[in-house]
């Protein structure tokens, strides 16, 4: 797999990958604007941002 540029810019997100313009939306993986080389980096980044977004959702719902 090869990632492509495009997606939501980092400046549009809070630290928990929560959309500033719609705080009930959390983004991860290919929804974010980033590039990654092949060789497992893409999947690792998708898993890592998915976990971070999931933790953000948990924190959001706990408040």
TrEMBL record:
InterPro entries reported for this sequence: FAD/NAD-bd_sf, RsdA/BaiN/AoA(So)_Rossmann
Entry-linked Pfam families: HI0933_like
Gene3D superfamilies reported in the protein's UniProt record: FAD/NAD(P)-binding domain (3.50.50.60)
Every RsdA/BaiN/AoA(So)-like Rossmann fold-like domain range: 5-55
UniProt name for this protein: NAD(P)/FAD-dependent oxidoreductase
């Amino acid at each position: 797999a090869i990632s492509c540029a495009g997606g939501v810019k980092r400046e549009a997100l809070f630290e928990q990958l929560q959309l500033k313009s719609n705080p009930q939306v959390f983004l991860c993986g290919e929804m974010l604007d980033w590039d990654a080389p092949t060789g497992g980096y893409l999947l690792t980044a998708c898993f890592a941002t998915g976990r971070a977004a999931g933790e953000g959702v948990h924190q959001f719902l706990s408040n």
